[in-house]
């Protein structure tokens, strides 16, 4: 199942629902350029549970029609410029959520359930603007006790980056369990990794506990420093200076185009 | 206290955060929140020194101060179970009813100014007992009469499950307490160097206050020494730039000539 980045990108088609992880969990930045080259647009991006650089770049490239998220930002580097601009002009549809609601939707899909109930949300404009969420009275109480139902989130494709996979297609995700949650809920899961190891990750209990079995993994490609400029847990830190460079450049359409065409898309060695 | 060792405004904020957290078992701090984190670390150090029950701190996005092993959902599960006593929220806008807006200014969805989004606030505000609203910028654009978008409401209608909510609002100018019954803020104290008239001018909502509000207390010598020593050391692991800035500011305060020369 070992592929290359372009082969992975070809599995994303126009109009798909695409799940991408939070910036510290393992973002496959290496897939951003191939996805843009592939050009499958009208994407519905689901941020698990928030988005950052990759989401901003896919929006800037015009591939995104809907963003379902609890937030999009570049963290210490500030606001996400292409996202903010697209929201302002109405170029994308925004489905504002809250982190545990995204987790609840994925959890429902993981269990094959139509929805999951969750506390909070009542009286917020987040709920008021989500026609796809519903409020019922807790049926286990005699009266009242309103509670929100979050429908299952079923992405077509999940894409993330991890330190290693073995030759059998098992992927080591450590304690970043949101990556497993994304994979369980998604029809197809595409993974990039720093390296491939020979021995099965399921062969010893220590590595098996942090392993996403190949059952949930559709395709894998090797991409050294594949999260850059984001960091990868246990491997390398975030390149904040690069995020700041992007944040400045991407304030304008021209600056964004310049940045994306430039050599700065390659990780510094 | 004037005449004794001078104190940075941010040291007063950190010491105030520690006071507001007194009694918590577990406090969670969001990413990029050095002052709340320092306040939590100061409380932990004070409790440690006094031989009292330890305080657990979870700093999101930190490796050293984060013991979760179940992904980013675990914080929310933990809060839902009642295992988190305190949390911090900022806000692009905060209004007099304790409503918080993290989404944007102006109409929705095409906001004239868009902020990142609600993050976990629409949940945590309901379930964490002591939410401390912290925003250094104290201006009428932040503290508005009514938020443009409610990411998280200050209070809830009767019958809505609500274990948590706003406890206090701390800014660079003063400290407010939230009155849960009335659903509004009361000015608790004014930081040194500021006054009531200035705070009224800078606040876009009405709030209760005594005719002559008290001054926010400065940290005592023992607290200050812990803050400048152990806490700054701990803080520099997670927020190296912030800790260095604090130390430089302190140096400049204590010895202006040396700071100019360096």
From TrEMBL, chain A:
Pfam families: CoA_trans. Gene3D superfamilies: 3.30.30.40, Glutaconate Coenzyme A-transferase. It comes from the Bacteria. InterPro entries: CoA_trans_fam_I, NagB/RpiA_transferase-like. This is CoA synthetase. It comes from Tianweitania aestuarii.
Automatic annotation (TrEMBL), chain B:
Pfam families: CoA_trans. It comes from the Bacteria. Signal peptide: none annotated. SMART domains: CoA_trans (SM00882). PANTHER family: ACETATE COA-TRANSFERASE YDIF, CHOLESTEROL RING-CLEAVING HYDROLASE IPDB SUBUNIT. This is CoA synthetase. It comes from Tianweitania aestuarii.
């Amino acid at each position: 199942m070992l592929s290359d980045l372009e082969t992975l990108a070809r599995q994303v088609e126009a109009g798909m629902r695409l799940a991408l992880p939070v910036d510290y969990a393992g973002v496959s930045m290496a897939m951003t350029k191939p996805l843009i080259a592939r050009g499958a647009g009208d994407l519905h991006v689901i941020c698990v549970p928030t988005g950052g650089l990759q989401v901003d770049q896919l929006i800037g490239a015009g591939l995104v029609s809907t963003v379902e998220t609890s937030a999009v930002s570049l963290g210490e580097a500030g606001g996400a410029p292409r996202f903010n601009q697209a929201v302002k002009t109405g170029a994308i549809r925004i489905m504002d959520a809250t982190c545990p609601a995204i987790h609840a939707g994925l959890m429902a899909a993981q269990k094959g359930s139509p929805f999951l109930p969750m506390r909070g949300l009542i009286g917020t404009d987040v709920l008021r603007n989500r026609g796809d969420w519903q409020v019922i009275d807790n049926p286990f109480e005699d009266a009242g006790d309103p509670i929100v139902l979050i429908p299952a989130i079923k992405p077509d494709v999940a894409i993330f980056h991890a330190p290693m996979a073995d030759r059998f297609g098992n992927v080591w995700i450590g304690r970043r369990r949101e990556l497993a949650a994304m994979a369980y809920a998604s029809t197809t899961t595409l993974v990039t990794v720093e390296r491939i190891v020979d021995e099965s990750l399921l062969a010893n209990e220590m590595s098996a506990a942090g392993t996403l079995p190949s059952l949930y993994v559709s395709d894998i490609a090797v991409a050294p420093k594949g999260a850059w400029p984001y960091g990868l847990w246990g491997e390398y830190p975030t390149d904040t200076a690069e995020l700041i460079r992007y944040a400045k450049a991407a304030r304008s359409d021209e600056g964004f185009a310049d940045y994306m065409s430039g050599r700065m898309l390659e990780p510094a060695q | 206290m004037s005449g004794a060792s001078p104190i940075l405004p941010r040291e007063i904020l950190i010491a105030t955060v520690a006071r507001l957290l007194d009694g918590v078992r577990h406090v969670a701090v969001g990413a990029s929140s050095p002052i709340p984190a320092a306040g939590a670390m100061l409380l932990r150090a004070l409790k440690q020194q006094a031989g009292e029950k330890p305080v657990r701190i979870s700093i999101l996005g930190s490796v050293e101060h984060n013991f979760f092993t179940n992904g980013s959902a675990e914080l929310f599960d933990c809060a839902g179970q009642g295992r988190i006593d305190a949390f911090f929220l900022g806000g692009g806008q905060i209004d007099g009813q304790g409503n918080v807006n993290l989404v944007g200014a102006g109409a929705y969805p095409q906001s004239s100014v868009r902020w990142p989004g609600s993050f976990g606030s629409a949940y945590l505000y309901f379930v964490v007992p002591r939410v401390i609203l912290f925003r250094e910028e104290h201006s009428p654009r932040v503290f508005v009469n009514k938020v443009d978008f409610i990411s998280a409401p200050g209070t809830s209608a009767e019958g809505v499950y609500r274990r948590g909510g706003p406890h206090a609002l701390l800014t660079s100018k003063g400290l407010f307490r939230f009155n849960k019954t009335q659903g509004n803020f009361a000015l608790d104290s004014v930081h040194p160097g500021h006054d009531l008239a200035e705070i009224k001018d800078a606040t876009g909502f009405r709030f209760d206050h005594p005719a002559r509000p008290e001054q926010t207390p400065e940290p005592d010598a023992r607290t200050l020494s812990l803050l400048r020593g152990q806490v700054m050391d701990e803080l520099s692991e997670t927020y190296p730039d912030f800790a260095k800035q604090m130390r430089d500011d302190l140096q400049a305060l204590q010895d202006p000539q040396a700071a100019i020369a360096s």
